[in-house]
Amino acid sequence: MFGQVVMLYKKCIALLCAVVLLLVVCLPAAAATPSISSRAAVLIDASTGYVLYEKNAHEPLAMASTTKLMTALLAAETLDWESTVTVPDEAVLVEGSSLGLRGGDTLTVEDLVTGMLLASGNDAANAVALLTCDSLPAFAKKMNERAAAIGMTDSHFVTPSGLDEGEHHSSAYDMALLAGEVLRNDRLAPICAAKQASIHINGVKTTVTNHNKLLKLYADCVGMKTGFTKKAGRCLVSAARRGDVTLIAVTLNGGDYWNDHIKLYDAGFETMTTTELSVPPLPATPVSGGVEATVGLTATPPTVTLPAVMLDALTVRVSRPAFLWAPVSAGQPVGSVIWEYQGKRVAEVPLIAIATVDARPVANTATQIRRLFTALLKALLSEP
After folding, report:
1. Which of 97, 120, 155, 238 is catalytic?
2. How far apart are CA 337 and CA 319, in angstroms?
3. Most C-beta atoms within 10 A of its C-beta, which of 53, 54, 188, 215?
């Protein structure tokens, strides 16, 4: 009897092992959380701001020359892009990486910003600051005002170049917000994505090379900026685009930061899902002054690519007027269907009138007077 029990026990164990092995082989593996060497890191979906990965993402840290993304943003928004400017003498009195500018040199604002972003010229950053404001502290104030407008609550800017001074710091998350602003700027995004560029200083052509090696190491990379100081360590703000999806990665105080970003992107793109959103029921809308009392509405379901975890948390609302004035034309946009995640819009399609509703004919003046007189007469006759 004891032998039969032992045999049955062994069979159960064997069956359990077989089931476990089958599950391991047949079930799809979840995307592994990447192991990141940098002290702080974040990966976000650029279109929604959804955080796909974070590690000490809000820790205030020095961010070195990635600071120049803010300096470039202010230049693009403030200075005349095509104008030729003269480099102030004070701008070139700075240590660290340099574009090789001298006081009195002339170049366009576009070339100045290009040299600042690709060659990481501290002299170019100072020049932008002094061409925008009367002093470096005044420019720092402008940087902090712009940071507040973006929502960079972990940041405080002191220098336009990123050289360590005072309480100059940001966070991985804040720098991702800044990167999103730069990516949306039509002047700056192409510069950040360039491996090389030609600029002219005093009319002489020179080539500047982007310090961001990720542009060569990762095919989907579209920018943006490296940085290094002894205090900050290796810093990198980057972006990658695959199809309709753009992801932004930031690492501060990094170790193997090129591979950190590659790991983040490989894991991040795996989490994105493409799906067609469902349009909610659309009730007919009243039409005032029309030959028909209502008109039907339609909307084309949008196809979106989003982090998979967002899909079940989306909310949808229909935005339309309480009624429409006739005439209404078939195909006329009359509102929109909006999908949101935590209050942020992720998709929107127009509401379209299905049919034409003509206006009721308007009576001429004589007819309107006769109707008014008849109504008054009826009212008087009906009085006791």
Report:
1. 120
2. 6
3. 188
DSSP helix/strand/coil, 274: strand
Would you say the C-alpha torsion 179, 185, 187, 189 has a positive or negative sign?
A: positive
Q: Which residues touch 84 (CB under 8 Å, ≥6 apart)? A: 106, 107, 108
DSSP 330-364: TT-EEEEEEEEETTEEEEEEEEEE-S-BPBPPPP-
Tens of pLDDT, residues 321-362: 999 999 999 999 999 999 999 899 999 999 999 999 999 987
Does the active-site annotation cover 278?
no
Residue-range definition of the domain harbouring residue 340 = 273-384
Q: Which of 204, 238, 270 is the last residue of a domain?
A: 270
Q: Where residue 71 sits, what CATH number does that domain have?
A: 3.40.710.10
The CATH number of residue 375's host domain is 2.60.410.10
Could you say which of 65, 155, 161, 170 is catalytic?
A: 65
Residue 254 carries which DSSP code?
E
Q: Which residues pair with 357 in a beta bridge?
A: 328
Asked if 355 and 258 sit in the same domain, the reply is: no
| Strand pairing report for 285-288 and 324-325 | parallel
Q: Is 288 known to be catalytic?
A: no
**pLDDT tens digits, one per residue of 36-56:** 999 999 999 999 999 999 999
Q: Is 155 a catalytic residue?
A: no
Shared domain check, 201 and 300: no
Strand order in the sheet with 221-229: 51-55, 40-45, 245-254, 233-242, 221-229
Catalytic residue among 38, 47, 55, 68, which?
Answer: 68
Q: Is the domain of 327 the same as that of 379?
A: yes
Residue 261 shares a structural domain with residue 342: no
Element (H, E) at 377: helix 365-381
Handedness of CA 90, 93, 96, 97 (dihedral sign): positive
